[in-house]
Amino acid sequence: MHLWDQFLEKLESEIGKDTVDKWVRPVKIVRFDACNIYLQLQDSFQKIWFKEHVLHRAEKLFLNHTLRPIKIHFNEPAPSAASPSFTQSLEFPYDTLDPQFTYTSFIMPQADTITLPVLSELVGFNLVQKNFSVPKIDAPLYNPIVIFGEEGSGKSHLLSATALALQKAGIQALYVKAESFTEHMIKAIRMGHMNAFRSAYRSSDLLIVDSIEHFCNKSATQEEFFHTFNSYHSAGKLILLSSRLPPKKLSKMEPRLISRFEWGITLSLPLLSKKELPLLLLKKLALFNLSLPREATQYLLATFENPKALVKALETLSYKKHLSSKPLSLEEIKTITSSLPGGPSHQKPSPEKILHAVAESFQKDLKDILGKTQTKDAVFPRKIAMYLLRQKLRMPYMKIGDLFSRDHSTVMSSIQCISKAIEKRESEVLSSLESLERKIAG
Which of 234, 268, 302 is the endpoint of a domain? Predict the structure, then answer.
């Protein structure tokens, strides 16, 4: 089939010949007509992979003579007979709950007026007296409960603490990270035990899934989770989810799932403010049995503004400290933490640093780059600067436009121009960006 051969050639240029040879070339065309094409795949796992990585590309290319899409069908692969040893080895190692993640150890941001109170009522935790009573998970008022916030806001802490508190109360609370859900599903498909997977995931009293943004762009996972969600919700069982973004902003997530995520209540969990970070630092120092001089704690607070990054730095220092009997000096602390996430080598550059780096690299006055000059030697660095501000800092188009005294559509067009040049592997653009990356990082 000529169209199929064309498609394979196009795929090779997009995802590589080795990938096509491994995953796509073994697919057999069973039959086709003007409106349909029927494909035979080797197994369910290949079907999942094809749907997630290839199907959307095929649907764009497969058009008939009237330019209408040719519908793609899959012949179900025959289930493989599982040996007894396979059945015995089918296990779903759920994510371990960290005993340090409790309601009493959680520091509530002053900006949070609802998230912690809602969950505390759910598990029966008294925020004032710091003790537990009977959980209230039956006939939940809101279902699901979705918590969203930046990395380091404490989503995993709260979800883990909720699961731990409910389990101690004798309630079957299933806590799993979204990535683990996908891994378990793939394992079950490979071994032909989807019934066991569904039984394992749908038999608890409530379901807690951390980081659902990892479901994005995984159509097979979303399909399975859709039915898992429905199973809990229709039974009146609570579903608790977390995400970096609110549901409506999750790209590559099926609309029907987003709609279900919004059936209940969506709660924002803010990061601890700079004024609140010292309390987190003191709690973790006590937990890690770590003593640091004042200038060291001041350095850490000034350097690590994200709570998660601060805790990681303290964990690393605790490990280093307990390997030696000597106290850590400030210089040693700076060296140890410099390459950690959120540390000096990972911190975002300022807009000013990016602009000055571009001006210096192209040997132009900054006023020419920011100004109205339309000569090529000013326009090209200007586009590069706009691209870097967007890519490095995620700066809004309108804010970039304000810097350059241009409207956001001009900014978008300039950034798209550089993006297309990168896709085409244009040497001038690639070498300029590579040089600027080093200059900005230095």
Answer: 268
